[in-house]
Specification:
TIM Barrel; Phage tail protein; single chain; eight-stranded parallel barrel; alpha/beta; two-stranded antiparallel ribbon; about 290 residues
């Protein structure tokens, strides 16, 4: 099992959280970057620096793109993905608040294809005057350093669909990973995996759970293993009102927390971070 970080608060508000992610030995799968409920309208130097440190440490950084339950036009989705790719050189995308019903399959397929095309076509260039770019090895360099040839991008962009619940099984054919649970411990402890998930390896699924008591951390890890989810994030922080990854509540788009997104509980470190890392890390008995 490995840790997927759904999206900490802005680095100015969560400096300790972002710094902790570069500590050696943290079993990270990926970390979501969100600037202003998305990429924002201009490069943010603090987010640029935080993303750069993670990339240099070998961590996959994903840009958070809101699908709003399928309500956002494809052009807006592509524009968000392009800003992430050009400004922050992300290694992929979390398509958050992703619909789960079969009627939306084709629309989501188009969105996944579009963001992967954006990532592949993203050129290496100085980012909005901030003077940093990523080198061919994946490291970030300052002005005057040699990066990849202009016009090259990331042909292997990693795409995660943030359903927050089990979607129609055909969604598994569209992306690298699906978030099949996002919600409170009170629901998670009694949850069941959809039968079709047994046809796929655990690396295809992620679970995000808030309000997990310290005394139930081991139980939460066992549930994830039983249900076949290899990427997790558990926190003792309470959920409160669902707030997506920024300031726009999912309810504003007619989408509940169970349809993707997450509460503000995921924007800070769990109170038992070291225990969580130990529970998830290498050497833990399966």
């Amino acid at each position: 099992m490995r840790i997927g970080v759904p999206g900490y608060a802005h680095p100015l508000l969560a400096a300790a959280e972002w710094a902790e992610l570069t500590r050696p030995g943290i079993p990270l799968d990926w970390v979501v970057l969100t600037v202003a409920n998305g990429p924002g309208d201009r490069p943010d130097p603090h987010c640029l620096a935080a993303a750069g440190r993670l990339v240099n440490a070998g961590v996959r950084v994903l840009g958070r793109v809101d699908l709003a339950g399928g309500a956002r036009p494809l052009g807006e989705v592509v524009a968000d993905a392009d800003r992430y790719a050009q400004w922050y050189r992300v290694g992929g995308f979390l398509l958050d608040r992703c619909p789960a019903d079969p009627a939306a399959l084709e629309a989501v397929r188009l969105a996944v294809t579009a963001v992967r095309t954006v990532a592949e076509g993203a050129g290496t260039r100085a980012v909005g005057g901030c003077g940093r770019r990523r080198t061919g090895s994946g490291a970030w360099a300052g002005p005057g350093s040699t990066g990849r040839a202009a016009g090259t991008g990331n042909p292997d962009a990693y795409v995660v669909l943030g359903h927050g619940r089990h979607p129609h099984p055909a969604y598994a054919d569209l992306a690298d990973q699906l978030v099949t649970f996002s919600g409170p411990w009170a629901d998670y402890r009694w949850s069941q995996a959809a039968q079709w998930t047994a046809d796929h390896p655990p690396e295809r699924f992620a679970h995000f759970v808030h309000g997990v008591p310290r005394t139930h951390l081991e139980e939460a890890a066992r549930i994830a293993r039983w249900q076949g989810a290899a990427t997790v994030f558990f926190t003792d922080r309470p959920g409160g009102d669902p707030a997506g990854f920024g300031t726009t509540p999912p309810a504003a788009a007619g989408v509940s927390e169970a349809s993707g997104g997450h509460s503000g509980a995921f924007e800070s470190l769990p109170g038992y971070w070291d225990e969580f890392v130990s529970q998830i890390g290498p050497g833990v008995s399966e």
